[in-house]
């Protein structure tokens, strides 16, 4: 769970980018008033800096936490398999089985750990994206969800 706060921040910064771009487009299309124009331009520059530095920092923090947890899991699993092989009677099992577990199976578990946080994060991003899209275009925004659900549902033809 140590990677969750950084991933939530990354989601927030990623969704802040379209709002920043929209505001910049509106800003460029407005007439120029000297003091107001200068203050708004500085605010937009600061917002862009905060957003893009936030994306970089939260991405680094998120990836650090994910790989840290993967390393802890890998170390724990190797230790468990090793301690189990030490208590087995001699000649009962082939020693290559333990090596297989320590390499192949642990690598598969670790590969799935990399995507564990992406599953919930992508669901949150889709929900936020559909909500933001529904604000802009209304009820039509659920059509992509319907298409995806229908595409992945079991077919009745088989």
Explain how this protein is built.
This protein has 158 residues and is an all-alpha fold. It is 84% helix and 0% strand. The chain has helices at 4-29, 34-87, 95-137, 143-152. It is elongated and about 85 Å long. The model has no long low-confidence stretch (mean pLDDT 86).
Structural class assignment: mainly alpha
Number of strands: 0
H and E string: HHHH
Chain-averaged pLDDT:
86
Largest sheet: none
Strand content: under 5%
Query: What is the overall shape?
Result: elongated
Which percent range fits the helix content?
over 70%
Give the CA-CA distance, first to last residue.
Answer: 41 Å
Number of helices: 4
Low-confidence stretches: none
Radius of gyration: 25 Å
């Amino acid at each position: 769970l140590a990677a969750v706060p950084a991933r939530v921040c990354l989601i927030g910064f990623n969704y802040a980018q379209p709002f920043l771009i929209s505001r910049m487009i509106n800003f460029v299309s407005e007439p120029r008033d000297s003091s107001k124009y200068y203050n708004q331009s500085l605010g937009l520059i600061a917002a862009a800096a905060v957003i893009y530095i936030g994306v970089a920092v939260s991405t680094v923090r998120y990836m650090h936490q994910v790989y840290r947890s993967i390393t802890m899991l890998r170390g724990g699993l190797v230790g468990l398999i090793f301690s189990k092989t030490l208590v087995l009677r001699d000649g009962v099992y082939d020693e290559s089985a333990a090596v297989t577990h320590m390499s192949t199976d642990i690598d598969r578990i670790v590969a799935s750990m990399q995507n564990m946080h992406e599953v919930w994060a992508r669901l949150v991003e889709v929900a936020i994206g559909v909500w933001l899209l529904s604000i802009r275009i209304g009820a039509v925004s659920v059509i992509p969800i319907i298409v995806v659900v229908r595409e992945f549902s079991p077919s009745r033809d088989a």
